[in-house]
Amino acid sequence: MQRRTLACPVAPLSPRAPRRRARRSSAAALLGAALSALSMLLALLSPGSALADPSADRAERGERSQRARPPAVGTALFSAGVDLEIAGRTLSYSDLLSDNLRTYEVLGVPMPSLRGELYPFARSAVPVLRDLGVELSYARALGLDSEGAGGASVSTSWSRLHAGLRGRYRLAGQEGPVLFASGGLRWTDFDIESTGDPSRDAASVSYVALRVGVDARLPVGPVALEAGGGVQAPLSMGALASHFRAPSAGGVDLRVAVAAPFAPGLEARAGASYARFFYDFDSEPEDTYIAGGALDQLFSVHLGVAYHGE
Question: Is the pLDDT of residue 3 over 90?
Answer without folding.
Answer: no
